[in-house]
Structures are given as structure tokens and as C-alpha cells.
Design goal:
Strand order of the largest sheet: 5-4-16-15-14-6-7
Radius of gyration: 24 Å
Helix content: 25-40%
Low-confidence stretches: none
Structural class: alpha/beta
Largest sheet: 7 strands, mixed
Bound molecules: iron/sulfur cluster
Number of strands: 20
Strand content: 5-15%
Number of helices: 22
Shape: globular
Mean pLDDT: 95
């Protein structure tokens, strides 16, 4: 263990709190980092208990093949041979990686590079798909880039916070504490919670809208129509910086109707709907927070755009205390998005479907092939495995036999798959039971790298403990396998700082201000600079070396026209409305 205190980041949720670990005679003391802008010294009970998780019980401490301990060389040869043989016989789309928002950005970058640019398939997807793919798609439709406009500071600068499908009290506790404190300091701050359930977050609410499950689009379409009818359109912003308002408004009017119609469709009192709409109309500084209650839905992307439409109509974006704000679930869901760790993305926020982006990334990587069509997304990937189309899979830092929906089918798929490789820090999980090859991974406190939180803030995770047994970081394992597959030069990494510099350089490669995700100013960090890197919000460029707290302050968006897009969205009720046949509505 290092002798002096280590500043690192909590590995539990997308708030991304800074943590200071101080060694002592009885183990380590974990406290909130007073200098980290996400939490200013606070931790929730989960973060505060991190010191109790550092034991080695049930750790996987050596590689295993078919249940027998082996050395690393044997295990890595087996993985590489298995993937090579499968690719030779059945093609690159017969193999897949299933990765995780628990990985560090450097792990993610290397896995994505190997699959898309060297194996030549886009069959890499992540468990973060389940928590934020709807937000990614909604941002891209509206802004032309997967960009969260706000900072946590905007929560304190706002005069109205709307929490939609977000139980922040449980899921993002330190942000909830910030909201509680903001309300104490500023009694004028209003909080509206939109949630079918009376969660703990409702304690903070001035108004709780208990809408029927799945009715978010009706509520926000109704708000859009109301704001327009009340003359609250920011005409100069809409005229100069957006497109598509007329179609979005027409759809909103026809689908939602009056506040009475909205109330009837959503199953809430009309006075509550009117009060919410009046609050939104009255407050210039509105932040709409949304989370899994919006994202985890068959119409999640439309819900995201229904919310964003209201911010575009009123110009409540790109200035202090205003904007739509997606809270991410996992600690590094955002970092995974940056490196393209989804089956339908390329690295550095480039688009898999755009040949010029594929060409650019391929030239940067000097790679022999490049995936040119989207790969299998999480649920589809395991379905394909169950049908025998995916014959080799590498699962990193996640437990899909438990965490994916319909896990009986996931287990059947894993049982059918010819080669299952699992890298994990735990010896025994529901997924490791299916593994042919187990690779021992380092975990929090033992590995070095970066994560990005919900407000685009890149923070370092730093090691303060030695790696136990033969455990190694995931980026190292992937690089070793890549070298055995014949790609030694492109995967000659010996430290995460090298990977981070390459990732940062790719973000700026032939960018010329065309892509919002740009951290090129970090591409020249020395190893010491990387070690001491302070939390910083992207973009980080030569012009903005200290990072960027708030996006779209210049009213420029990343669509082909440079305008933000309204998206016309129609409500989609749950497939089986509650009634006699289906008396229960379940949500996540
Ligand atoms: Fe960790 Fe999230 Fe709690 Fe912060 S709020 S201490 S990141 S679990």
C-alpha cells in the first residue's frame, strides 16, 4: 500500500465523487475529497464504505482454463487461439466482446480498438447500453453530438429542478444532497418530481406528478404546446439556432392536447399539470434531470427528445442554471461513450455509418480492416449467441447472467457458446460459471486510469494497493491477446498513460472544430502530468485548456446545419395497458 494519501474516484455511480484514501494502522480511511468539484468532500454511504470492500475474499487470483489454474502465457495463448480459429472458420462477426461501464476508459479504448479496427467487427457492446443508450441517441438527434450540456453547478444555479424518472436520493445520493442543500440555501428553488412512484426523492418535491407509466412524452408534448400557446417561445433562439419546431409542435398539439387532456392521459389531477406547466413557464433557469425512468423504456429516446424540445423552444440551454441533464448510472458510462464502446459507434464520438469517419480512424490506428456496419447490441448479442451465431465471447467486468433481462435465455446462450472468456476480479459469479477461460482482473484501488462522470468530468482512478496474486488490468490482457493475434505494434502499451494520450490524440485528429468531443490538449501529457491530472470537463482543447463547464454557450450545435433539432415525438403507451388482463405495471 502507498504510504501517503491517494486521491482517486468512487467506482459506484455516475456522480463520480472524488475520494481520498489514507493508510492507517487499521487499514485505510476513505473520505470525500474536498477538492473534487463533483462532491466537495461529501460521500454517500456507499462511497464511505469503500474501505470495507478491499479484502481478497472470493478474488480470482490466477488465470484458469477449464477450471484449472494456469500461467498467464498459457491462458492468453488459449484466448488468442480460440478467437483466431473462430474468426478463420466463421468470420469476424462470429466473435464478440461484452464490456462494462465499470471498465476504465483506457480498458474500453483498447477493447474497442481491437474489435473494430483489427478484428474488423463492431460486435462490442456494453452493459451501459441498458442505462443510457436512449440518452446517447436523443442527444445525437437534437445536438448532432452525444453531449450533456450542463454541469453539477447548474443544479445550484437553477430556480426550478424537474426530476423525471430519477430517484436521485438512492441512485445519485451526493447530487441529491447537493439539491437538498441548494433548497436550504435558496428557499425560492422549486423541485418537481415526475415519477409513477413516491420514491425517497419525492421528500424534496414541491410537486409530485404521479404519471402513469410510460406517459412522459404526453406530459412534455403537452408542456411544449402550452409554452408555445402562452407565448414563451424564445423566437430569436428558435429562428437562428434550431430547426424542426413546426413539426414538433404540430405533433405535440395533436398527441397531447390541452392540460385537461394531458391530465386524463397521464392519470393525474389537472391542477397538478397546470401547476407544473406554470412553474416551467415562470422560471428562466430550469434544469430537467432525467435518468433510468426515462432511458430504460422502449420509447426512451423519444422521451429524451420530448424533454429537450421544451428546452429548445424556450432557449433554456447553454446558459447558467438551464438545460436538459441526463444522470448516468455507472461510474464510466460516459467514458465508454467517448471511446465508442457501443456496437453502433466509432471511437472519439465518430460515426460508424460515415465512411469518412471510418477512413479517418483507420488511418489513425493504421489498422488492417475497419468494421463498416453496426454490430450486435447487448440483448441482440446474447440472442445471436443463443442461436449459435456468436461462437466466442469475451465478457469483461460484468455479470450478464444476472444483469441482462430474461436471464434464463442469457444462461442458455452462454451454455451454447463454444468459447466463453470472462475477465473479472471475482472467482464465483453467475457468469463465471459458464467460462472456459477465466482471467483475473485488478479492481478499484489496484488499477490506474480515468473515468468520466455525468457532467463530462474526466477524473483519475489511482492505484494505492498492489495487484493481488496474478491479477492484471483489462487493458493489459486485451493488449496481450491483440499482440498474439499479430497486432504487436498497435497494441504495444505498457502503461495506461500511453493509451490515454492516444485516445486524446484521436479526439483531435482532423477535428478542426467539427466534433465536440475533443480532449486533444491532453494528448501531450507526460506520465507525471497524467498521474497528477486534476478533474477536468471536456472539451479540453488549446483554446480551452481548463476544460468546458457548459456546452452550447455559443449557440452552435453539431448537426450538419449547426442548428439544434426539434424532434417530433408521438407517445407510445406500454404494449399492455394496465387492466384486467395485466393488473400490474412494473418499472425499473
Ligand atoms: Fe460514490 Fe455515487 Fe455515492 Fe458519490 S454518490 S460516493 S460516486 S456511490
Amino acid at each position: 500500500m502507498t504510504a501517503s494519501p491517494t486521491d482517486t474516484t468512487c467506482p459506484y455511480c455516475g456522480v463520480g465523487c472524488g475520494v481520498t484514501v489514507t493508510p492507517g494502522p487499521d487499514g485505510v480511511k476513505v473520505s470525500g475529497s474536498s477538492v473534487h468539484p463533483a462532491n466537495h468532500g461529501r460521500l454517500c454511504s456507499k462511497g464511505a464504505a469503500l474501505g470495507e470492500t478491499l479484502g481478497h475474499e472470493d478474488r480470482l487470483l490466477e488465470p484458469q482454463v477449464d477450471g484449472h489454474g494456469v500461467d498467464w502465457g498459457t491462458a492468453l495463448d488459449k484466448v488468442a487461439d480460440g478467437f483466431r480459429r473462430t474468426i478463420e472458420k466463421h468470420g469476424p462477426d462470429s466473435v464478440a466482446f461484452y464490456v462494462s461501464g465499470q471498465l476504465l476508459t483506457e480498458d474500453y479504448y483498447v477493447a474497442n480498438k481491437l474489435m473494430k479496427g483489427f478484428i474488423g467487427s463492431a460486435n462490442i457492446d456494453t452493459n451501459s447500453r441498458l442505462c443510457m443508450a436512449s440518452s446517447v441517441a436523443g442527444h445525437k438527434r437534437a445536438f448532432g453530438a452525444d453531449a450533456v450540456p450542463c454541469s453539477y453547478e447548474d443544479l445550484e444555479a437553477a430556480s426550478l429542478i424537474v426530476l423525471v424518472g430519477s430517484n436521485a436520493a438512492w441512485c445519485h445520493p451526493v447530487l441529491y444532497q447537493r439539491l437538498v442543500r441548494a433548497k436550504d440555501t435558496n428557499p425560492g428553488l422549486k423541485v418537481v418530481v415526475v415519477d409513477p412512484r413516491a420514491t425517497a426523492t419525492v421528500d424534496l418535491a414541491d410537486l409530485h406528478l404521479t404519471i402513469a407509466p410510460g406517459m412522459d412524452v404526453v406530459l412534455f408534448n403537452g408542456l411544449l404546446a402550452y409554452l408555445d400557446s402562452e407565448g414563451l417561445t424564445d423566437a430569436s433562439f428558435v429562428d437562428d439556432h434550431t430547426e424542426g419546431m413546426a413539426a414538433a409542435l404540430a405533433t405535440a398539439r395533436s398527441s397531447a392536447g390541452s392540460p385537461s387532456s394531458v391530465a386524463a392521459q397521464c392519470g393525474v389531477p389537472v391542477d397538478d399539470v397546470r401547476e407544473f406547466y406554470a412553474l416551467f413557464a415562470e422560471h428562466e433557469r430550469v434544469v430537467s434531470v432525467y435518468s433510468q425512468g426515462v432511458n430504460q423504456s422502449s420509447s426512451g429516446t423519444d422521451k429524451v427528445n420530448a424533454i429537450i424540445n421544451c428546452h429548445l423552444l424556450t432557449g433554456r440551454i447553454g446558459h447558467e442554471g438551464a438545460g436538459p441533464f441526463s444522470f448516468t448510472g455507472q461510474p464510466n458510462a460516459m467514458g465508454g461513450r467517448e471511446v465508442g464502446g457501443l456496437a453502433n459507434q466509432l471511437a472519439a464520438h465518430m460515426a460508424l455509418e460515415d465512411w469518412s469517419h471510418r477512413d479517418r480512424v483507420q488511418r489513425f490506428w493504421r489498422s488492417p480492416v475497419m468494421a463498416d456496419t453496426a454490430g450486435l447490441k447487448a440483448v441482440d448479442l446474447f440472442e445471436a449467441m443463443g442461436e449459435g451465431r456468436i461462437k466466442a465471447v469475451w465478457i469483461m467486468a460484468t455479470n450478464p447472467a444476472v444483469s441482462l433481462p430474461d436471464n434464463r435465455r442469457v444462461r442458455e446462450a452462454l451454455a451454447r457458446c463454444e468459447l466463453v472468456v470472462v475477465s473479472d476480479c471475482h472467482r464465483q459469479t453467475d457468469t463465471t460459471e459458464f467460462a472456459d477461460i477465466l482471467l483475473p482482473a485488478t479492481t478499484w484501488g489496484e488499477k490506474n486510469g480515468t473515468v468520466t462522470n455525468s457532467e463530462r468530468r474526466i477524473s483519475r482512478q489511482r492505484a494505492f494497493l498492489p495487484a493481488p496474486g496474478k491479477s492484471r488490468p483489462d487493458w493489459w490482457m486485451v493488449s496481450q491477446v491483440a499482440q498474439r493475434l499479430g497486432f504487436a505494434e498497435a497494441f504495444a502499451y505498457t502503461a495506461p498513460a500511453q493509451i490515454f494520450r492516444e485516445h486524446a490524440a484521436l479526439s483531435g485528429f482532423e477535428n478542426h472544430g467539427q466534433r465536440l468531443f475533443d480532449i486533444s490538449a491532453l494528448s501531450t501529457l507526460s506520465d507525471d502530468d497524467y498521474d497528477s491530472l486534476a478533474p477536468i470537463q471536456w472539451p479540453v482543447t488549446v483554446d480551452r485548456p481548463r476544460g468546458t463547464p457548459r456546452l452550447f454557450t455559443d449557440r452552435r450545435f453539431f448537426t450538419p446545419t449547426g442548428r439544434a433539432r426539434f424532434v417530433a415525438v408521438s407517445p407510445q403507451a406500454p404494449a399492455n395497458a394496465p387492466g384486467e388482463a395485466y393488473p400490474w405495471s412494473l418499472n425499473t
